[in-house]
Amino acid sequence: MSQADHATNKQANRSQSDNTAELRKSPMMAHLLDALEKQEDIGHYGRLTFAMIARHFLSDDEIVDLLSHQPDHNATDSRALLQQVKQRNYNPPKRERILEWQAQQDFPICPDPENPDACNVYQELNFPPDIFDQINNYHEEQVKAEEKQNS
């Protein structure tokens, strides 16, 4: 391996760890990452939540690698889930949605559901600005559709 290749790999590894460190600023995401690294089954909604949030911080390959070690969930399943999330451009879920999903499975996505400040990734993480633009556009379209329906 040349020195340039080694430097590129070192930079990529630093970026990966920086992005993982950013994700770990959310106690919920740290909880999910820990479980994924231990190859614990985080359930369908845990995987969906993870993919919807992690795609803004980690590479596709990193996400697929973490998700593909789930019981009954291989790399193909993981890529399909990630592709669905990206194609539909899902925004990270709100705390309320996470708690709804958690009620439908055994694995606790939100490790501290009694804390009203827990699992609010919009407060815990620094998302790219375009996420908030997409959310605002969605809400504006909803208002326009309601106004059109009511007129």
Automatic annotation (TrEMBL):
Bias-annotated ranges (Polar residues): 1-20
Domain of life: Bacteria
Annotated region (Disordered), positions in chain: 1-23
Protein name: Uncharacterized protein
Organism: Dictyobacter aurantiacus
